[in-house]
Amino acid sequence: MQSIDIEALNQQIYLDSAFVENLNRETGQVIVGQQNMIERLMIGLLTKGHILLEGLPGLAKTMAIKTLSQAINAQFSRIQFTPDLLPADIIGTMIYNPSTHDFSVRKGPIFANFILADEINRAPAKVQSALLEAMQERQVTIGGTTYPLQEPFLVLATQNPIEQEGTYPLPEAQTDRFMLKVKIGYPSKEEEREIVRRNLNDDHFGEVKQVVQQKEILQARQSVRKVYMDEKIEKYIIDIVFATRAPQDYGLPNLEPLIQYGGSPRASINLALAAKAKAFLHRRGFVIPEDVRDICHDVLRHRLGLTYEAEAENITQEDIIDKVLNTVEVP
Amino acid sequence: MRRPFFLFFWTLIIFFAPSAGRAQVGVEATLDSISMFVGGKRTVRLKVDYAPGVLLLEPGIQVIDTAKAIELLSSSPWDTTRANDKVITLEKDLLLTAWDSGYFQIPAIPVNFEIQGVVHTLYTEILPLRVNLTPPDTTALMPLKPIIDEPLRAEDFIPYLIGLLGAIAVSVILWRLLRRKKQAPQAPPPAPAAEIQPHVLALEKFRKLEEAQLWQKGLVVDYHTELTFILREYLEARFGILALESTTTEIGEQMEHRVPEELRAELIKLLNTSDMVKFAKAEPPAEIHEQLLGHARNFINSTTPASAEASAGAASH
Question: At the top level of CATH, which class does the domain B17-132 belong to?
Answer without folding.
Answer: mainly beta
